[in-house]
Specification:
mainly alpha; 0% strand
């Protein structure tokens, strides 16, 4: 497998979640499982092959999809934690924070914010969470795919533009529906 399959999956999956996460809620939860397992393997088993990362991440996505079908409400909280935590981790990295401990704390704080959003502002939260989570995955996938070594500020701008565009598209779809 070339070095493009996993970054392409992150890029395309991230864009799908950023722009259609509210509509594709089960896919968004499955993609959160994919991201969680991807991040866990990278953290606990560094320097694994792309195949290993992809296989374990897909298994995580399948588990996430299965659980989403059976326990959607609970996994919306989990998705909020993972996506906002992942976005916070990415932003910390974009700003050059290399300390794993600090980034873990940032991830946990972001994750707790994601849970709070789901709990208190459900419709708005799903749009925000999927836009931010999808944008961070897409930005990271693009960085890996195109082997771009850029300053953190450039990627924060790209990340925020994708997140904002995704939220606008999703909110237009949500507001267009009768409640």
């Amino acid at each position: 497998m070339g070095n493009w399959v996993l970054p392409l999956a992150l890029l395309l999956g991230g864009l799908a979640v950023a722009f259609a996460g509210r509509r594709l809620l089960n896919f968004a939860v499955a993609f959160a499982g994919f991201l969680l397992f991807y991040n866990l393997v990278e953290f606990f088993l560094p320097n694994q092959s792309d195949w290993t990362l992809l296989i374990i991440a897909v298994i995580g996505g399948v588990i996430g999809a299965w659980l989403a079908i059976r326990f959607l409400k609970i996994f919306l909280y989990v998705m909020g934690f993972i996506f906002i935590g992942n976005a916070a981790w990415a932003v910390a990295g974009f700003f050059g924070i290399d300390s794993t401990l600090i980034r873990m704390v940032v991830y946990l704080i972001g994750g707790l914010i994601g849970i709070g959003l789901v709990r208190f502002m459900f419709d708005v939260a799903i749009v925000i969470i999927t836009a931010l989570g999808g944008a961070s995955a897409a930005a990271y996938g693009a960085q890996l795919l195109f082997n771009i070594q850029s300053t953190g500020q450039v990627w924060v701008i790209v990340f925020l533009l994708v997140a904002l565009a995704g939220a606008i598209v999703q909110w237009g779809v949500v507001k267009g529906k009768k409640r």
